[in-house]
């Protein structure tokens, strides 16, 4: 961390902020398409998480 100066931290902060703004802007632009094609995605993710949790519990017994 000795070679990381103030300019590097400023660049990292500006880059992160710009990236997040672009990410949210792109998501809002495609939100209707995501809802149409990936509507039940939350159920699938929840099912996978629950399955992994059950496997973890049975492995610990």
Summarize this, please?
The chain is mainly alpha-helical. It is 84% helix and 0% strand. It has one domain.
Give a description of the structure.
The chain has 61 residues and is mostly helical. It has one domain. The chain is built from three helices and no strands. The longest helix is centred in the N-terminal third of the chain and has 24 residues, at 6-29. It is flat. The model has no long low-confidence stretch (mean pLDDT 88).
Top keywords for this entry?
61 residues; flat; 0% strand; mainly alpha
Strand and helix map with partners:
Blueprint: H1 6-29, H2 31-37, H3 41-60
- The number of distinct structural domains comes to 1
H/E series, N to C? HHH
What portion of residues belong to β-strands? under 5%
Major sheet details:
none
Structural class: mainly alpha
First and last CA, distance: 44 Å
SS field, number of helical segments:
3
Mean pLDDT: 88
Shape: flat
Q: Specify the helix fraction band.
A: over 70%
* Number of beta strands: 0
List segments where confidence is low: pLDDT < 50 over at least 5 consecutive residues.
Answer: none
How big is the Rg? 20 Å
